Amino acid sequence: MQDRSTQEQTTREQTTREPAIGEHARAPQVPAAAGAAGGDALTLDKVNAKYADNHVLHDVSLAVPRGSIVAIMGANGAGKSSTLRAISGQIGGTTGSIRLDGQELLGKAACQVAAAGVAHCPEGRQVFGPMTVRENMLLGAFTRRDQDAVGRDLERMFALFPRLR
After folding, report:
1. Which of 41, 94, 134, 161 has the greatest CB tally within 10 Å of its CB?
2. Same-domain status, 128 and 92
3. Count of the separate structural domains present in the chain
4. Does residue 99 sit in the same domain as residue 146?
5. 126 and 102, same domain (yes or no)
6. What are the pLDDT digits (tens) for 50-89?
7. Same domain assignment for residues 79 and 138
8. What are the pLDDT digits (tens) for 104-127?
């Protein structure tokens, strides 16, 4: 019988290898929260996107299992930001299929994609730099209507990350 750390290492090695040619990329899965349904939270199938005449995404397919933590890595110009922008509805004319919890997102406006639960926060541009930490966190709850639950979630984040106060 393997101990837990050996099992975790074996699982990590099995799930983080590069996909072979023709295989779809799959994100490594971490244990889902209690009561969370299994399956893929996000799937992209043969997604293509263009900026004017510049074809930037070519048949991108991937699956993100529920409860997983994912990083998209690659060289400059590899399509990382374009993939994220396509998912969040920011590139018009994108083709293929993008599903969140089985719901098709492709063709929806960025505001509808955000309301469905997809958040896109570009890094390094100080877009909301003049705002306080609290204001930035509340912006993430912009589409939520239950202010009591938002307050509880905010307090939970402050408890997890006390330096944010």
Report:
1. 94
2. no
3. 2
4. no
5. no
6. 999 999 999 999 999 988 888 899 999 899 999 999 999 9
7. no
8. 999 999 989 988 888 887 766 666
Query: Do 85 and 109 contact (CB within 8 A), yes or no?
Result: no
Longest dimension (CA), the chain: 56
| Helix (H), strand (E) at residue 3 | none
CA angle at 145 for the pair 139 and 149, rounded to the nearest 5° = 85
Quick one: tokens of 121? 């926060």
Phi and psi of 82, rounded to 5°? Answer: -65, -35
Give pTM, 2 decimals: 0.64
Shortest CA distance to 136 belongs to which of 116, 161, 113? 161
Neighbours of 132 (CB within 10 A): 10
Average pLDDT over residues 21-37: 45
Contact 118, 140 (CB under 8 A): no
CA distance 108 to 104: 8
The H or E element that residue 31 is part of is: none
Residue 137's domain spans which residues? 121-165
